[in-house]
Amino acid sequence: MTPVIPARPSGALPRSGWALRDGWTVARRDLAHWASQPGQFIVGLLFPIMVVLVFAYLFGGAMAVPDGGDYREFLLPGMYVLTMAFGVEATFTAVATDASRGITDRFRSLPMSGSAVVSGRCAADMLNSALGLAVMVACGLAVGWRFHGGLGAALAAVGLLLLLRFALLWVGIYLGLLARSPEAVMALQILVWPIGFLSNVFVSPDTMPGWLGALAEWNPLSATATAVRDLFGNPGWGEGTWATRNALLLAIAWPVLLVAVFFPLSVRRYRRLSR
């Protein structure tokens, strides 16, 4: 019996529904992999949880926060940001693994929406990141962190964190399609880790050399960290610079810029695979 290949729907609305269905199918496939092999998710959370415990109980006593604030309340919003940033490694590895094994090419040969592979990966990783953020918030509450800005402000802070993850997700998708080798994750770590620590997550940029402090203040991670500290009602490092005073604006502008750059690059790279 000859298989019948369904025709691609015509019209904007039917094609959109088709793309959403195919994207959700790919997302379910990725989620099924995590459900059957939860080790990757657990290991991905161990590092930020370990850092929280080390800084909260080992180094925290030596850290001075303005106005005598609790260092743990200062630290945790920054750790939420780092958790979102380090998630780019998992995205990169998953995309590069599928590309290196030819799975992505097989998807491209099927009668499915051309955007389903990247949109499905995006949906699965965002669900994974939301769960990881919930675990980190629970860890923060366990070590004494609290939010004081009200529920609405706290939800807005969570929204900013997920917006940052969404933007960095497209960076991971593009680099994964570009590298097509999961072993290249070590090179990505060399890039991501310095960017993550060159921020105001752990210490004030005022303690750094002038040029280095300026880079830290304009780091997208610093903008989100400062904005979510304000929304959570947690202590920060003061409001001496334009970047600090306008952290909320930058926490939205940086992710929008990253998506504007890396989303079209990801789509273009996906279409050019195997050419």
From TrEMBL:
Signal peptide: none annotated. The keyword Metal-binding does not apply. Its main location: membrane. One of its GO terms (biological process) is response to antibiotic. The keyword Membrane applies. InterPro entries: ABC2_TM (IPR013525), ABC2_TM_bact-type (IPR047817), ABC_2_transport (IPR000412), Nod_factor_ABC_transporter (IPR051784). GO terms for cellular component: ATP-binding cassette (ABC) transporter complex. Residues 39-273 form the ABC transmembrane type-2 domain. GO terms for molecular function: ABC-type transporter activity. It is a multi-pass membrane protein. PROSITE patterns: ABC_TM2. It is found in: Cell membrane; Membrane. The chain crosses the membrane at residues 41-59, 79-99, 130-147, 153-177, 184-203, 247-267. It holds the Pfam family ABC2_membrane. Keywords: Antibiotic resistance, Cell membrane, Membrane, Transmembrane, Transmembrane helix, Transport. Belongs to the ABC-2 integral membrane protein family. This is Transport permease protein. It comes from Thermostaphylospora chromogena.
